[in-house]
Amino acid sequence: MKTLLLASALFVGLFGLGVLTATDSPFPIPYHAFCKSIWLFANPCLQISAKLEHQIKVFSPSAGCADCHYMLVAVTPQSIMANHSSADGLTTERLIFRFYPTVLTRGCRVAAQSQSLAFTSLLDNGLNYCNLYNLLSASGLNSQPDFLEMTNEWACLGYGLATCKP
Questions:
Q1: Cβ-contact 71, 85 below 8 angstroms
Q2: What does the alpha-carbon distance between residue 79 and residue 88 come to, in Å, rounded to a whole number?
Q3: What is the pLDDT of residues 98-124, one digit of tens each?
Q4: Which of 33, 109, 118, 119 has the fewest CB atoms found within 10 Å of its own CB?
Q5: Residue pair 139/51 in contact by the 8 Å Cβ criterion
Q6: Which residue has the higher pLDDT, 105 or 8?
Q7: How far is the CA of 22 from the CAs of 19, 25, 27, in angstroms?
Q8: Angle between helices 45-58 and 127-138 (to 10 degrees)
């Protein structure tokens, strides 16, 4: 029973609840490869968002990084939007990070998402996962005490195939 409750909570947390009409399917068919993940931190959201924003700027071509392909799009106290382009410029993925303060621990829950903008194979060999992980790892956030990542193959297509290289 505990496993069922935990799985239900994870599913709702990753996909959210929406209002369905008679023509809507509760499981829409995705047309783009994507990855959704939840990250939990013991640190406040302002610290987490500042580190992610800084790392995106470091990984941008305008910062002099020739092999980097991240571009900051928008930043608010509650979210960061960025794009990642392939080295050849043929594919682009949209990255969104939403920040939610946790009341009991005074930490932060981050809903991280990367989605291919082109109609590509749904199995992207972990490209969308690596877009998120490379920022997480390079910023050192995955080394924070009490860091926890929650995702799986349903929420992150290609997650099991990912071999991320910064």
A1: yes
A2: 28
A3: 999 998 888 999 999 999 887 665 567
A4: 119
A5: yes
A6: 105
A7: 10, 8, 13
A8: 110
> How many residues does the structure list for the chain?
166
Residue 138 has pLDDT above 90, yes or no: yes
At the top level of CATH, the class of 32-161 is: alpha beta
**Whole-structure pTM value:** 0.78
- According to DSSP, the residues that pair with 80 across neighbouring strands are 75, 97
List phi, psi (to 5°) of 7.
-65, -40
Residues 149 and 37: beta-carbon distance below 8 Å? yes
Report the percent of the chain where pLDDT is more than 90.
48
Residues 6+ apart with CB under 8 A from 3: none
**Three state DSSP letters for the chain:** CHHHHHHHHHHHHHHCCCCCCCCCCCCCCCCCCEEEEEEEECCCHHHHHHHHHHHHHHCCHHHCCCCCCEEEEEECCCEEEEEEECCCCCCEEEEEEEEEECCCCCCEEEEEEEEECCCCCCCCCCHHHHHHHHHHHHCCHHHCCCCEEECCCCCECCHHHCCCCC
Tell me how far apart the alpha carbons of residues 133 and 67 are, in angstroms, rounded to a whole number.
17
